[in-house]
Amino acid sequence: MGKRTNTAAWQEKQGRWKIDVQKDGKRRSFYSFKPGRTGQREANAKADAWLDDGIANTSTKVSRLYADWLEELAATAGTSYLSECRKYGEYYILPVCGALKIGDLNEGHLQTVLNKAYKQGCLKKDRQRKPLGRPLSKKTLQGIRSVERSFLKWCRFHKYTTLFPENLSIPKGARLCGKKILQPTALQILFSVDTRSWHKKTIFDDFIYAYRFVVATGVRPGELVGLYYGDIKGNTVNLRRSINIHNETTQGKNENAVRSFDMNADARAAYEAQVDLLHASGIEINYATPLFPVGSERALYRRWKRYQAANGIDPPVSLYELRHTFVSVNAAAMNDGQLKLLVGHSKNMDTQGVYGHEVEGQREQLAQASTEAFKQAHG
């Protein structure tokens, strides 16, 4: 039976009972002109009949359907997203909702998942650890909510439920995790020192131009690993792919990840030095030659940590926080929409609609603005 969370209300002016319900994102109203509770029951019955139309067996457990969803998802989703859905289900969603019949599941249960996860962290008993003294971050809770909605969308598509959880909210106390960035002193080191320590010796770090290119362009680590020599034409970088931590080639994190931008002076210098390094290393260069043959994100991150330790960069930052550094350095030189154009943020983050139409000459202007911003940041 379809789940109603409301009941018909009497409208005095119209002399009728009315109830509004929703199924698969569609809203309908049902009425009865019979007086008293008989009319209310009739309006409710009409709504229930519409909600139940075409619904499959509602007694199936949520845990069973979640497993079926993951199995179907595996045929189309990347390993990273599938792992995230499996983890969020196992750690947060199923401990609260798994034993329920899908017909008994309501939006309140899904909100309870978010509320409990915020305060308690992992809800799976055999995975619970000593509390860390801080609640889950807003970003993690947003991820859990997104997975809940995706799962329910699949359930609606397969006619297991009519539940459309549109009012799920993130607890007000949830905060985004603080991100570190390279401060001016650290940036000066990065753009002037190209060595690291190895067995108590100082050696040239052959990944140095990769670090500099990431911080000077704001590309994601996977986008850097997936960048080919042939993807750069003149001064324009054309990002066409990303290689994730599972060594899978994808089209990037979102629909705006495939993008083009012009290099600023620091990025251009890192690019030209890297091409010279490839030639000096005897690597045959063609269209499909990886511009930065670092092996993988993990290999690049391990080397980056060693570089920071060897050169006194403290506090150390992650590869992804180099991207945050790029955004922070350029924040004063560009408006929010221009930054989103450069770093490939998703559409719902694009408040000024820059993605729709690129103004002629805009890429060159942004590159020059970024050049000036980095000149001020590291001299």
How many domains? The number is: 3
| Helix/strand order | EEEHHHHHHEEHHEEEEEHHHHH
Uncertain stretches of 5 or more adjacent residues: 347-360
CATH class of the largest domain: Mainly Alpha
Architecture per CATH nomenclature, i.e. the level-2 architecture of the largest domain: Orthogonal Bundle
**Nearest-angstrom radius of gyration?**
27 Å
Which structural class do you get from the secondary structure elements? mainly alpha
The largest pleated sheet is described as: 3 strands, antiparallel
Report a brief summary of the structure:
The chain is mostly helical and 379 residues long. The chain has helices at 36-52, 62-73, 79-97, 107-120, 138-157, 184-190, 208-217, 221-225, 265-280, 297-310, 319-330, 336-343, 362-378; strands at 9-11, 16-23, 26-32, 195-198, 201-204, 232-233, 236-239, 242-243, 249-250, 259-262.
Q: What topology does this entry show?
A:
Layout (H helix, E strand, L loop, with lengths): L8 E3 L4 E8 L2 E7 L3 H17 L9 H12 L5 H19 L9 H14 L17 H20 L26 H7 L4 E4 L2 E4 L3 H10 L3 H5 L6 E2 L2 E4 L2 E2 L5 E2 L8 E4 L2 H16 L16 H14 L8 H12 L5 H8 L18 H17 L1
Antiparallel strand pairs: 1-2, 2-3, 4-5, 6-7, 7-10, 8-9
Helix pairs in contact: 2-3, 3-4, 3-5, 4-5, 7-9, 7-11
